[in-house]
Amino acid sequence: MTAKLDEKLVPIYQDVLHRNPGEKEFHQAVHEVLETLGPVLVKYPEFADKKIIQRICEPERQIIFRVPWQDDQGEIHINRAFRVEFNSALGPYKGGMRFHPSVYLGIIKFLGFEQIFKNALTGLPIGGGKGGSDFDPKGRSDDEIMRFCQSLMTELYRHLGEYTDVPAGDIGVGGREIGYMFGQYKRITNRYESGVFTGKGLDWGGSRARTEATGYGTVFFTHEMLKARGDSLDGKTVVVSGSGNVATYAIEKCHELGAKVIACSDSQGIIVDEKGIDLKALKQIKEIERRRISAYTEIHKDAKYVEGGNIWSVPCDVALPCATQNELNASDAKTLVENGCIAVAEGANMPTTPEGILLFQDAKICYGPGKAANAGGVATSALEMQQNASRDSWTFDYTQKRLEEIMIDIHKNCYETAAEFGAEGNYVLGANVNGFLRVAKAMTAMGVI
Ligand code: NAP
How much distance in Å is there from the Cα of 132 to the middle of ligand 1? Predict the structure, then answer.
């Protein structure tokens, strides 16, 4: 069950299916955007004449390459890596790298496609791209991670540049991996080109608040959605899926704003701590020791760990999916609504299935799609690029203030765009249309390229 497409958009979607067989996540991401563009073509028929939508659905460039590397025992492994340079109408391609065994072209294309609109929503000069590899970093030593990153960058470097394509982190890629990739780029090119990567360490060109930005931004966005309904996060009970970068800092900001996060997860199980998740313990386990979330009960004996548990069955006021795509389905959405959840904001990319989204919209709860709700990460990456370009380094407070202002603006733009197109409170339409219009206008101005 998905929303219907306007009849003008049906052949465009059919063509996407035909040209990109087997890439179901990419099909899903395109469908979700096309569902909302019918009224745009009525107001701006020139975009149909200029085939803007067909052009946006076709990446400008796709790079697929082999990454051979040796493990600590000397055995050779072969992975496949991707970089999809999707759209550069607004600036250099910008989007993270994902290392996860599930990665294939369809996942990178869905992420790259979403990134175009997300980046446009930030109002900053960044185009959309994404990359990654089917490499599984779990259980690998530091040396193995380094050799893999160096091998990957030995090919990828030629496609990057601060004015061309600027990667960052995503699932399985944090400060350590970015350090190894940036180091190899610097070595091969003989250039200290800080702006070619974001998410760098603070001692070598990184921005304060970048690590925190996606999670914090998601919570700022949630707060804005609640404020628009005369409510706030203060005193709310929250459930956050995942326990990686986005989840950790979403939990931190929820607690700062007076909410209590009572559950989080990893791919193997969930932790429920009715007293509120102890962030210090979580960071120690996940960021320093790199262990499974189950270790949390060694520190908090009264917390509950459920192997394979479903985090969406934990009653809450606010749900923040911050793990991965399609992690929240229709049945989960139904459970959340029945349990009294009033707001969902996506720290992850496309975590809610199309059927789940419809259920949230029918229930008229606040629902903030990832394109808008998690745009704080890439926005702060663009702030990192600004600091690199001016050889400057801003304070944490100043950078966080800029992030908050950007999230408030994104919320306002989504809200107002939805209202303008007769769909007040529909942040999916607001985000897609607002992002699309900015890209479409730039593409129109630049001619058929
Ligand atoms: P991360 O640090 O690698 O953490 C990912 C978390 O999600 C981990 O707890 C992981 O558990 C869990 N997870 C991953 N794949 C899973 C799966 N197939 N099933 C269940 N759980 C899974 O990654 P992250 O940077 O926080 O990214 C999380 C999400 O946010 C992704 O959708 C990403 O695209 C999106 N996002 C990230 C950023 C950013 O700045 N990092 C910006 C915008 C959006 P395990 O450790 O057990 O695998």
Answer: 13
Using most ligand atoms within 8 A of CB, pick from 324, 326, 327 the residue to mutate for ligand 1. Answer: 324
Average pLDDT taken over every residue of the chain: 98
pLDDT in tens, 80-118: 999 999 999 999 999 999 999 999 999 999 999 999 999
- Residue 118 known to be catalytic: no
Q: SS in 3 state form for the chain?
A: CCCCCCCCCHHHHHHHHHHCCCCHHHHHHHHHHHCCCHHHHHHCCHHHHCCHHHHHHCCCEEEEEEEEEECCCCCEEEEEEEEEEEECCCCCEEEEEEECCCCCHHHHHHHHHHHHHHHHHCCCCCCEEEEEECCCCCCCCHHHHHHHHHHHHHHHHHHCECCCEEEECECCECHHHHHHHHHHHHHHHCCCCHHHCCCCCHHHCCCCCHHHHHHHHHHHHHHHHHHHCCCCCCCCEEEEECCCHHHHHHHHHHHHCCCEEEEEECCCEEEECCCCCCHHHHHHHHHHCCCCHHHHHHHCCCCEEEECCCHHHCCCCEEEECCCCCCECHHHHHHHHHCCCCEEECCCCCCECHHHHHHHHHHCCEEECHHHHCCHHHHHHHHHHHHHHCCCCCCHHHHHHHHHHHHHHHHHHHHHHHHHCCCCCCHHHHHHHHHHHHHHHHHHHCCCC
pLDDT tens string 290-302: 999 999 999 999 9
Q: Is 347 in the pocket of ligand 1 (CB under 6 A)?
A: yes
* Catalytic pick among 94, 118, 130, 371: 130
Q: Does 241 have pLDDT greater than 80?
A: yes
